[in-house]
Amino acid sequence: MEPDDRRGYLMAAHTSSYDASHRTPGDAAPVSSTGALQREPLEQLPAIVERVIASYYAKDYQPLLDRATSDCIFIGAGNMVFNGRDDMLRQLPEVETAPSIFLRNARFGFVGRPSADATDATVYGTYRLFTGAREPILLAAKQRITVCCSLVDGIWKAYHVHSSNEWNELVGEDVFPLQVSMETYAYVRGILQAGQRAGNLPTRVALGTSKATRYVDPTQVLYIEADGKRSTLHLADGDTITLNVLLNDIQPQLPGTFFRVHRSFVVNAAQVSGIRKFTLELSDGTQIPIPERRYSIVRREMALRVTGGLDPQKD
Q: Do the domains spanning 3-165 and 179-303 agree at the CATH topology level?
């Protein structure tokens, strides 16, 4: 449920964007001119939570460690669970291999109406997650989070954090979780299209053998079908190209947007318009069968293609 759907329950909500250049302020409790300890204003808590979560996904973990109580429970999407701050310190180095992720369209607010002098408050938020185009894996997803906080020596600290991924219904029978979300599919496709316009993707690839080579625009290939010891390329304009090459041998010559759906079919993910139970639908209406045993694998591959045509060292 989006925060603005919780009428009467959220207040002080705000919308913003965040990247890795933002950092959570130091956590020293404010002190008055007389030296007395002051409490952090309650109204700042949603913004504090947003900065901490954004820093976490940007792989800057110190703000989270600073704002977590010693017994904080952090339940992330998937199987990520931290049982206390010490557990975070043990596990966070293992997360270093994960891609850096940035937040967009973040919206955070309070659950309920905490009083101005409250010492406990719960913040609820939604946001979109994206990896950068330079990352070897591209993903995009909507996520929501609930953070339970208490005031400790004048500083707001989290004692329970729970994030989860939205599940987006498709038109049809299928559902995409984070790993295969339509957010990811749209994001990957946008990256590929932008790369083509910028000249970062090849306009032609050489397919075939040393005896016979054809130069093909990979963006125009819908799918490739095995035909005995030959392979037939089906193009967006309706033409076909037949090569005397096995499908197993032709796939390594293709950009990373192509993946094996079936032993007889290699499909261009950028040309997929929909996925239904045991069927991929292409932009021209062609339906490619998906074996039941490979269905979950194909769904995942559909959205998490490595962009082999993009040079990760270039913008």
A: no
pLDDT digits (tens, 9 = 90+) for 237-290: 888 988 888 888 887 777 777 888 888 999 988 888 777 778 888 888 899 998
Superfamily of segment(s) 179-303:
LytTr DNA-binding domain (2.40.50.1020)
- Residue 25's CB: how many other CB atoms inside 10 A? 11
Give which of 147, 107, 105 is closest to 125, Cα–Cα. 107
Give CA separation, 162 vs 42, 123, 148, in Å: 20, 11, 9
pLDDT digits (tens, 9 = 90+) for 68-88: 999 999 998 767 789 999 999
Name the least confident of 41-45, 68-72, 193-197.
Answer: 193-197
- Dist CA 48 CA 54 (whole Å): 10
Instruction: Specify the CATH architecture of the domain 3-165.
Output: Roll (3.10)
Instruction: Return the HEC string of 189-216.
Output: HHHHHHHHHHCCCCCCEEEECCCCEEEE
CA distance 6 to 24: 27
